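A student in our group prepared the protein record below, which I am reviewing. Thanks in advance; the entry in question is below.
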Amino acid sequence: MSEPTGIPCSARTEFGGIIYLPRLVDKIRLMEGGTLHEDFHANLGRGMDLWTCQFLGVDYNDLRAQVIAGATDDEILVWIKEHGRSRPDFELAWFNSYMRNRGFRDDLSERLAERKKETPHTDRDDIMSFMDYIEVDEGRSL
């Protein structure tokens, strides 16, 4: 799932219909393997990691333990279904939209504007959400 540079997969990637989950799992695997880029260390289990776990109804550390134990992506989905909160399709659609659009005309808009200015290559008008920002900041195109 990950690139050789210690950068996790795209935030837009999904499995089991859940956006961001592959990135969350990838960051845990990279950290456990000692290859996660240090820029990601401070926010493990926070921000989008936390929102995803909250939506799924699982504790980050419990999910982390499953990943570290070597669970495959499919096994992780089964574990989430067994230990998390069951969500109807409309809530999953809402969550995916929420995650894709964080920072666009919401309570994080100001923080996104600050982050874009911190790095010259991200100070662009087409970056309208944190997912856009992540893609560009990590060298992927929109």
Summary: The two ends are 19 Å apart (CA to CA). DSSP finds seven helices and two strands in the chain. The chain has two domains: 1-101, 108-142.
